[in-house]
TrEMBL record:
Keywords: DNA-binding, Transcription, Transcription regulation. SUPFAM superfamilies: Homeodomain-like (SSF46689), SIS domain (SSF53697). This is MurR/RpiR family transcriptional regulator. It comes from the Bacteria. It holds the Pfam family HTH_6. PROSITE patterns: HTH_RPIR, SIS. The lineage of its organism: Bacteria, Bacillati, Bacillota, Clostridia, Eubacteriales. InterPro entries: Homeodomain-like_sf, HTH_RpiR, RpiR-like, RpiR-like_SIS, SIS_dom, SIS_dom_sf, WH-like_DNA-bd_sf. Residues 3-79 form the HTH rpiR-type domain. Residues 125-264 form the SIS domain.
Length: 285
């Protein structure tokens, strides 16, 4: 959990009322559960009223409890273990309809992604990718699936794409050895953030490459070295990550780059369609 909030709770503890001290103690010791509780549920858990929880959030400088809750959720995502994720999911979903709960959560993630992603930075990222001598794509752990998806389509479109093998740090640096300011690097990582991805982006930035981070927050370690940061909301589904919104954002990136190099992409796919037809790659309906 973020040290800033913990420090604030510790420093302000002497000024808290008895009820507020209960809330602070519970948040400090059970942040993984508190972050996903309603104000009423948190109040009932620690033995205070819902209004006390709301006033406590405002006492800490938040506009209301939802803002404190959101702050806690953003802070803890990178620290929850797989076991804690399962416990949180049980708290949030319980005996509810799992399909409805998960799909509703994904729709919320898409909505927030559409609202939070900067159109200006998106346009700049598309321009950077389209103009790069070489495009490096990096994704580790669950984000590797996103990197493979993006690499697949970019490789169909262009001949200057490198999907970086992230099985070891040595492999990463060897593949990026000749990277320069003429190249673009797309780093993808969501909580829990990958150290390998962070190091790779630092390596690229130190050599002058243009860095694009696709992540969930500007506080993400990937964002620190990026020229453009494209935000996609990622949330937890049991011990796995919800990658619906990040995948949708990648679809937009692919479409944007394709439109910026429309003629080249059209010529490429015209040739691909001819080859697919000649070698009967797809079943005919």
């Amino acid at each position: 959990m973020d040290g800033g909030l913990l420090t604030t709770l510790e420093q302000r503890s002497p000024t808290f009322s008895k009820g507020q001290r209960r809330i602070a103690t519970y948040i400090t010791e059970h942040y993984d559960k508190a972050a996903f509780m309603t104000a009423a549920k948190l109040g009932a858990t620690v033995g205070v009223s819902e209004s006390t929880v709301v006033r406590f959030a405002m006492e800490l400088g938040f506009d209301g409890y939802p803002h404190l809750q959101k702050a806690m959720q953003e802070m803890i995502r990178s620290k929850l273990t797989s076991l804690q994720r399962i416990e949180v999911t049980d708290t949030r979903i319980g005996s509810e309809d799992i399909i409805s709960s998960v799909l509703s959560q994904d729709m919320e993630n898409l909505k927030h992604t559409m609202e939070e992603t900067s159109r200006e930075e998106f346009a700049q990222a598309v321009e950077t990718i389209a103009g790069a001598r070489r495009i490096y794509i990096i994704g580790v752990k669950s984000s590797k699936a996103l990197a493979v998806f993006l690499s697949y389509y970019f490789n169909l479109m262009f001949d200057n794409v490198v999907h970086v093998d992230t099985t070891s740090e040595t492999a990463i640096f060897e593949q990026m050895l000749r990277i320069s300011e003429r190249d673009a690097v797309i780093g993808i990582s969501f909580p829990r953030y990958s150290k390998r991805a962070t190091k790779a982006l630092r390596f690229a930035a130190d050599r002058g490459a243009r860095v694009i981070a696709i992540t969930d927050s500007r506080r993400s370690p990937l964002a620190q070295r990026a020229g453009q940061v494209l935000l996609a909301r990622s949330d937890m589904v049991s011990f796995v990550d919800s990658l619906v919104a990040p995948l949708s954002l990648l679809n937009a990136v692919i479409a944007g780059v394709a439109m910026s190099r429309r003629q080249e992409v059209s010529d490429t796919f015209e040739e691909l369609e001819r080859l697919w037809e000649e070698y009967q790659v797809y079943e005919k309906r």
